[in-house]
């Protein structure tokens, strides 16, 4: 199962290719740098995907607080997405009656 690292404090000239290259010794499968939709400029953070947890942990140990393009970058394990209880991110109903069911008087 693929696992991800979140990389922050990236220089604004960092590209996905240069980020992947920085992590090359740890077998990254993909790198992503978040960019502004309007200007296309980097937002200063991104992610790197690894095939194994061992590759991820080795990369975090070796590259957290390392320098890339003159900036000290922060590398953390991406958290699992939170599961919502229902549609549109809402929590489950707790009233005891089904949604749309008629109320009793």
TrEMBL record:
Range of residues in the leader sequence: none
Sequence segments annotated as region (Disordered): 72-105
SUPFAM superfamilies: RNA-binding domain, RBD
InterPro entries: Nucleotide-bd_a/b_plait_sf, RBD_domain_sf, RRM_dom, SLIRP/GR-RBP-like
Keywords: RNA-binding
Gene3D superfamilies: 3.30.70.330
Residue span, RRM domain: 3-80
PROSITE patterns, per database record: RRM
SMART domains, per the entry: RRM
Source taxon at top rank: Bacteria
PANTHER family, per the entry: HETEROGENEOUS NUCLEAR RIBONUCLEOPROTEIN 87F-RELATED
Protein's name according to its UniProt entry: RNA-binding protein
Annotated organism of origin: Kitasatospora purpeofusca
Upper classification of the organism: Bacteria, Bacillati, Actinomycetota, Actinomycetes, Kitasatosporales
């Amino acid at each position: 199962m693929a696992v991800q690292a979140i990389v922050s404090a990236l220089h604004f000239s960092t590209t996905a290719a240069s980020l992947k290259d920085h992590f090359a010794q740890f077998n990254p499968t993909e790198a992503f740098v978040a960019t502004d939709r309007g200007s296309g400029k980097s937002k200063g953070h991104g992610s790197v995907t690894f095939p194994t947890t061992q590759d991820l942990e080795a990369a975090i140990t070796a590259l957290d607080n390392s320098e890339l393009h003159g900036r000290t970058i922060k590398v953390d394990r991406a958290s699992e997405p939170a599961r919502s209880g229902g549609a549109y991110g809402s929590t489950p109903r707790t009233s005891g009656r089904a949604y749309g069911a008629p109320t009793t008087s």
